[in-house]
Each structure stands twice: as C-alpha cells, then as structure tokens.
Amino acid sequence: MSDGIQGNDARPATFVAGIPPGRPAEPQGVGDVLAILASDDAGFVSALNLPVNGELSALNRHPPQA
C-alpha cells in the first residue's frame, strides 16, 4: 500500500501540504476524539459518522498526488 510513497521524498511532502493543518495526524489527536466519544459527555451522541481527517472532508477534496 505504501510502495508509491516509500523511496519518494517529494510525495510525502506533497501529501502533507494538502492537509489543512499542514501536518499528518498524531495518534494522540485521534485518541482524544475517541476519549470524548467514550465519556459521559457524549451521552446523547448516537449513530455518528465522524471523520477524523484533518479537515479534508470539510474541503471536499483529497490531498494532491505527485
């Protein structure tokens, strides 16, 4: 799956440049979302599709491909 990225130094930089925060996701950021959903604060949340993708869904586009 990562064959086209490995060994190509320009491709990861191009991908990251297309992510609005300008950096790849960190496990802690995804874990924070899961922690909120697992808490009592999310007691009325149900049947939710919550993309955790660095605002890409909001832009309705994908990162540029080299």
Automatic annotation (TrEMBL):
Protein name: Uncharacterized protein
Record organism: Ponticoccus alexandrii
Region (Disordered): 1-24
InterPro entries: NAD(P)-bd_dom_sf
SUPFAM superfamilies in the record: NAD(P)-binding Rossmann-fold domains
